[in-house]
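Extended Data, record DoxX family protein
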Amino acid sequence: MKRDAAGLATLLATTGVLHFVAPKPFDGIVPRGLPGSPRTWTYLSGVAELAVAAAVAHPRTRRAGGLAAAALFVAVFPANVKMAVDWRHAPPARRAIAWGRLPLQAPLIAWALRVAR
């Protein structure tokens, strides 16, 4: 597996597993406008990340997996915005983490698209 693809698959798989092992932080950033319980969305996004990780890891599905990863990174952006807004009065370190996640989405999307090529 190419190094870019291996790294992306590892990132996605790790984050996907975390959605099940420690779901509470993910529940807290689910946008309020989504129907149903935040835990359901946490688990669904965890499943999506694990599925995309598997697709990126396999050479025959890597292109589709890379495109799906890019779409996933776009889809979770509203949760990152919610986190930044919710943490606007948090201690400086937490605020930096929350706001730092926003511009980080662009290189993640670029990475996924590079893997798709």
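Summary. The chain has one domain: 3-116.
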